[in-house]
Design brief:
The protein is of the alpha/beta class. It has one domain (8-342): TIM Barrel. It contains 15 helices and twelve strands. It has helices spanning 8-18, 74-90, 100-104, 111-115, 127-130, 135-146, 157-162, 173-183, 199-207, 223-230, 247-257, 272-280, 290-297, 306-326, 332-336, and strands at residues 34-36, 53-55, 58-60, 64-66, 93-95, 121-126, 150-154, 187-191, 212-214, 262-265, 285-288, 340-342. β4 (64-66), α2 and β5 (93-95) form a beta-alpha-beta unit. The chain is globular, with a radius of gyration of 19 Å. It binds flavin mononucleotide. Flavin mononucleotide binds next to α1, β7 and α13. Residues 1, 14-15, 18, 67-70, 97-98, 124, 152, 154, 191, 193-194, 216, 220-221, 266-269, 288-291, 293 line the site of flavin mononucleotide.
Length: 346
């Protein structure tokens, strides 16, 4: 994610570390605190359940996209091509990882658009990079290279601090986001990377005009743990290993306070039941990063296995359909008002 130095080795190291059990947060995302009421007479047929939705001016088979992960090295580009094929075939969106390394190396990921012509593609750049003198220009190039429908700006102050090469001066990032909203030819999403975006920050982001906030909360892939594994003096950061706000807490607070805003859910979504619960809590769409990577390259970090990854996406959708069926909801509009309850996480 952060790219202060030549980042090729780091990108590939991140892929390997993200597969390791040490990469998972010890605190869960909170989906088990959400209970949807069981409907004993669904009055619909499971095979007619309709997850289709519109997202970023494209039709999706379900409100899902593959979360921002990688790009910029030969291996990472190969993974992104596989993810593009996977997303196109499944009819779901694709967000790429930070494009800075690839653009600064003079390389391009424009082939992804050819592999995924009918789905939303979401570019990616760090907030800290956006705030630099050439940040807006870099963001324009990122959007252009991908022919992106939106760009996600990631906020990762904790990861940057723990990362040996990380950047700790976070001044002017909000102003840069405001500038990007005006200057870029596409919608701007702002996301965290696993520590969550809470209500106060979400308000500031919407106030400067961002289209959507992706909470990217605590409970899944944990970048503090991953970066701590790469640094020599990790003891300093041990109290902060599970710093952050669980995904469900972020979703619930923002959606209650700002129900009209576009909210995206990620961080610790384990399966289709969690994904459906995120939609029920107010998210427009849900993404998974680490779990898709694990399905694609396996625990051995092998070559992309599109069959295994396609099956994982099919299972995810089937679990979402089953959730709608068991709540007596024939489509997403019905499901959003299905009865259920939530125990706040203290
Ligand atoms: C290998 C890997 C690389 C990532 N790189 C980026 C990145 O470049 N930009 C970004 O915004 N998020 C990045 N993320 C964070 C994810 O988009 C997501 O916010 C986080 O992993 C939590 O979701 P998960 O629990 O489904 O993995 C990366 C995640 C993984 C697993």
């Amino acid at each position: 994610m952060s790219e202060k130095t030549t980042s090729a080795d780091r990108k590939d190291a991140h892929i390997a570390l993200a597969l390791d059990p040490l990469a998972m947060a010890a605190i869960d995302a909170g989906f088990d605190n959400v209970r949807l009421d069981h409907c004993a007479i669904p009055e619909c047929s499971l095979e007619d359940i309709d997850l289709r939705t519109e997202f970023l001016d494209h039709h999706l088979s379900a409100p899902l996209f593959i979360g921002s992960m990688t790009g910029g090295t030969a291996r990472a580009n190969g993974i992104n091509r596989a993810l593009a094929e996977l997303a196109e075939t499944a009819g779901i969106g694709l967000a790429v990882g930070s494009q800075r390394a690839s653009l600064e190396a003079g390389s391009s990921q424009h082939d992804l658009r050819a592999l995924a012509p009918s789905i939303p593609l979401i570019g990616n750049l760090g907030g800290i990079q956006l705030a630099k003198a050439d940040g807006i220009d870099l963001a324009k190039r990122a959007v252009d290279d991908l022919q992106a429908d939106a760009i996600a700006i990631h906020l990762n102050p904790l990861q940057e601090v723990v990362q040996p090469e990380g950047e700790c001066d976070w001044r002017h990032v909000l102003a840069a986001i405001e500038q990007a909203v005006v200057a870029l030819p596409c919608r701007v999403i702002v996301k965290e990377v696993g520590a969550g975006i809470g209500l106060a920050v979400a308000r500031r982001l919407f106030d400067v005009g961002v289209w959507a906030v992706d909470v990217a909360g605590l409970g899944g892939t944990n970048w503090t743990r991953i970066e701590a594994a790469r640094c020599e003096d990790s003891g300093l950061f041990s109290p902060f290993l599970d710093w952050g706000m669980p995904t469900v807490t972020c979703l619930q607070k923002i959606s209650i306070a700002m129900p009209e805003r576009v909210l995206l859910a990620s961080g610790g979504v384990r399966h289709g039941l969690d994904a459906a619960k995120a939609i029920w809590l107010g998210a427009t769409a849900v993404s998974l990063a680490g779990p898709v990577l694990k399905a694609l390259v396996g625990p051995e970090n092998g070559p992309p296995d599109l069959i295994a990854a396609s099956q994982a996406i099919a299972d995810l959708k089937a679990q979402m359909e089953l959730t709608l069926f068991l709540t007596g909801s024939k489509d997403l509009a019905d499901f959003r008002s299905a009865p259920g309850s939530f125990t706040p996480i203290t």
